[in-house]
């Protein structure tokens, strides 16, 4: 009787050990696969994909995309739920977070989380922005006393450099930059003009990358001032009178 009980205990211990080993092995093999970094363009849609990699079937208790502690996509026993402003798709153990009209404010870390009957795990994706420039406007004022360069939806923050030929004359310009709620910058720069016909070059300089991302030539023809014109006409008149007297 004692031998039979002992044999039963040994079998139970072996079965328990095998079961625990299989659970540990299953947990160690379950992982989430995501892209480490996703580079986005302004106003474009971006999809972040999270795949469950498991050698055996598992039961999903909670599957989600999270940013700054806020759940953007949630998959649980009752269905799929999306945070306002995003769209979520869940198919074949893949949860996709679709971001619409990505802006600099959308940059940062996004975490895919999984809680299942086998394990609890997570993986991160970082969204970064490429350079942005939505629109630009350039004009020469009616009296040609100054030129203006406006750039809208700029990222990262930049400034305007002015050139007359190869000469950098930015110090003479007045430039203002304003940050909007989407994390983009609107820049306005004005420059007093000089007499001449050589075009001005308005260039967007991005200090963080050390490059120019936009160039525009402003053509104008500003003559002499009215006072200078009057003096020139009087000088020409006296020269003509002098020639007539000599003749």
Automatic annotation (TrEMBL):
Domain Ig-like, residue spans: 28-128
A Gene Ontology cellular-component term: external side of plasma membrane
Record localization: Membrane
BP GO annotations: regulation of cytokine production; T cell receptor signaling pathway
Chief location: membrane
Molecular function (Gene Ontology), one example: signaling receptor binding
Keywords: Immunoglobulin domain, Membrane, Signal
Official protein name in the record: Uncharacterized protein isoform X1
Protein's organism: Salmo salar (Atlantic salmon)
Gene name tied to this protein: LOC106601404
């Amino acid at each position: 009787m004692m031998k039979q009980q002992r044999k039963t205990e040994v079998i139970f211990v072996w079965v328990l050990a095998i079961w625990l080993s299989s659970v540990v092995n299953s947990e160690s093999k379950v992982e989430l696969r995501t892209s480490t970094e996703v580079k986005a363009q302004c106003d474009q849609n971006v999809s972040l994909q999270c795949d469950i990699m498991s050698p055996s079937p598992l039961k999903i208790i909670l599957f989600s995309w999270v940013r700054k502690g806020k759940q953007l996509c949630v998959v649980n026993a009752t269905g799929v739920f999306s945070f306002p402003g995003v769209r979520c798709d869940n198919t074949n153990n893949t949860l996709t977070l679709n971001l619409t009209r990505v802006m600099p404010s959308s940059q940062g870390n996004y975490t895919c989380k999984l809680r299942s009957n086998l394990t609890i795990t997570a993986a991160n994706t970082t969204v970064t922005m490429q350079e942005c420039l939505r629109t630009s406007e350039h004009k020469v004022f009616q009296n040609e006393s100054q030129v203006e360069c406006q750039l809208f939806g700029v990222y990262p923050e930049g400034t305007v450099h002015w050139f007359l030929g190869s000469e950098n004359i930015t110090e003479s310009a007045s430039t203002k930059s304003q940050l909007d709620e989407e994390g983009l910058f609107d820049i306005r720069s004005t420059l007093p003009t000089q007499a001449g016909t050589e075009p001005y070059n308005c260039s967007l300089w991005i200090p963080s990358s050390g490059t120019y991302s936009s160039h525009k030539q402003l053509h104008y023809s500003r003559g002499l001032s009215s006072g200078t014109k009057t003096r020139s006409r009087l000088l020409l008149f006296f020269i003509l009178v002098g020639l007539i007297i000599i003749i």
